[in-house]
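Working notes for the structural subgroup meeting. M.R. asked for a predicted model of this chain before we commit to crystallization trials. I am recording the input and output together here so anyone reviewing the notebook later can reproduce the run.

Input as submitted:
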Amino acid sequence: ALELIDAPDPTPKPNHAILRIALAGICNTDIEIVKGYMGFEGILGHEFVGIVEDVGDGDNDDEEENGIKEQWMGKRVCVDINIPPPDLQRVPFDADVVHHAAGRSVVGIMGHQGAFAERIQVPLCNLFAVPDNVTNDEAVFVEPLAAAFEIPHQCSIRKCDKVVVMGDGKLGLLIAMALRLSSDDVTLLGRHAEKLALVEDLGVHTAGDDAACPIPVESADFVVEATGTASGLGTALSLARPRGTIVLKSTVADSESLNLAPVVINELTVVGSRCGPFDKALDALAEKRVPVERLIQERFGFGDAVEAFEAAQRRGMLKVLLDF
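Returned structure, recorded in token form:
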């Protein structure tokens, strides 16, 4: 069960930073964790922006230590949530290595306390400085936006490719925004006209995901499944063209039986897609190419975090923020 507790502030370990959280977002993954996904128990929260308050001493000489502290103290930062084991805690951060490294932990999801707290400790190598022209309201979206940019990092998407994004929730909307930068033919399928309208001015086609869906079966080069449901993959299999690609983004606690014969018959490629490149997300925000603020629906003070979670679970809710 969710509850607000008093916890001691972390003390800085060598080559780690203490951050004071400024703003955090509640993600569908947080909600699924409460239902039992990943078996995590502890402090939740992995979408956040914070200020570096302290830096632990490392094994460097005094001059280098002072340089490191000067580089980070007082800086606004976002944090790649994949915490590498000690032997990989180095700069520059190599996401392709760290994101699936044996022994890694994941902030607020697996083996590492999260950011729904006044302060959090993370390795220096996981820090990404937030550009001055990126607001906190934008920066809090860096983690999910990076997950959206992981798709073109994994898949070679051309301007002419037909891309279908399933799900008009928070992640689906971000994915549609991000992939519109790669393809001229992106369609977002969803059930909420007011949400679909959030991306229509960006050149994203929209349609309902019901029986009247205008997407012909077996027609899409890429289908991104971001419905947040266990049943979404079955629909995605019907939309992808032969030798097309399905990208899976949903993480759900539920399971469902599935006929995988279409994967074999149509020689489909199924790609699991998770965390992505923070630098690409920060660049897009700094260049004002992805208007993430329009996804914010409600915000709560941190003292009302339990109520914020209740709000975030209401059907159709977009991003709920915790303001510290």
